[in-house]
Design brief:
This protein has 110 residues and is an all-alpha fold. The chain has one domain. 66% of the residues lie in helices and 0% in strands. Helix 2 packs across helix 3 and helix 2 packs across helix 5. It is globular and about 55 Å long. The two termini are 30 Å apart.
Length: 110
């Protein structure tokens, strides 16, 4: 399992969850982070409640979100939140690739 594959799977989940148009080219981790940080910035201005709800559904630690939103945080809030989101999506991608369900056979198809 390559790290690049996890990044691309995480990117696909980010595009879906954040209702973004997928990029025509594969983005590097840094490019994906910048895209996400820009979108998070827009969401913070226009749809903050939706953003927080989505982060809750993603199971991102609430204390880390609160720390990222503090005025005294070392990074801009949009970048800090984007890093939390990307890290969580990479964890989810790793889990999906590592623990794929076994085929249960035709009798279990719906």
């Amino acid at each position: 399992m390559k790290e690049e594959d996890n990044i691309q799977l995480a990117a696909a989940m980010i595009y879906r969850d954040f209702e973004l148009e997928p990029s025509e080219k594969e983005l590097s981790e840094q490019e994906l982070l910048q895209l996400l940080a820009d979108h998070v910035d827009w969401l913070m201005e226009k749809r903050m409640e939706w953003l927080l709800s989505l982060m809750y559904r993603m199971d991102i630690d609430e204390r880390q979100v609160e720390a990222a939103l503090l005025p005294t945080a070392p990074e801009p809030a949009n970048l800090a939140l984007a890093k939390l989101i990307l890290a969580r999506q990479q964890q989810r991608a790793h889990t999906k690739r590592t623990y794929q369900p076994k085929d249960l056979g035709k009798e279990w198809e719906w």
